[in-house]
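Comment thread on ticket #2218

A.B. wrote:
> Attaching the input chain for the structure job we discussed in standup.
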Amino acid sequence: MIDPAVPLDAASLRFNATGAADGPEPQSPVLLTLLRYWQSKCHAPKDGMAGRLPARSDLDPLELRRLLPHVYLIDVLPGGMPDRWRFRVRLLGEKHVEVYGPGLVGKVIDDVFPPAVAAEFNRLYAVVVRRRAPVMNHGRVSWLRNKEFLQYEGLHAPLASDGSSIDCIFGAGAFVGMD
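C.D. wrote:
> Ran it. Output below, let me know if you need it in another format.
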């Protein structure tokens, strides 16, 4: 579980994020499969109109069943100011629950993590919304007591119910060092 009393390793906390299109492909086979899945759900441009982002309803749990333990969904909520959003945990796969603990679903990121950690998650998710494209990140889980040994690779991709306005982030994590 997240312990706000644990001092943070601020140097390793900053997420290293790259766009999936402008960076290397995921090293994790799970993340590569999920990136390809997200890409397959994108709607191609037609008749001079821009392509549309996939919606949450485009995701089929039956198609994802063996990958669901790695998946999470984050709702994108208006933050009261332009280009400011709040992010709420909608779904958390079993692998994430093993790392973060239970009880995060339905909670806003700011209410779950210590301020420095929440700020980094918020920054990462805001990059996804601004880029309107998948973002990859990787590093060490330095913000959780007794989990500092874990390395992770993350995929975070935008979803839009109307094809344009991003209202959800489809993500997945691969943790190295778990049993």
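A.B. wrote:
> Thanks. Noting for the ticket: The CA atoms of residues 87 and 164 lie 18 Å apart.
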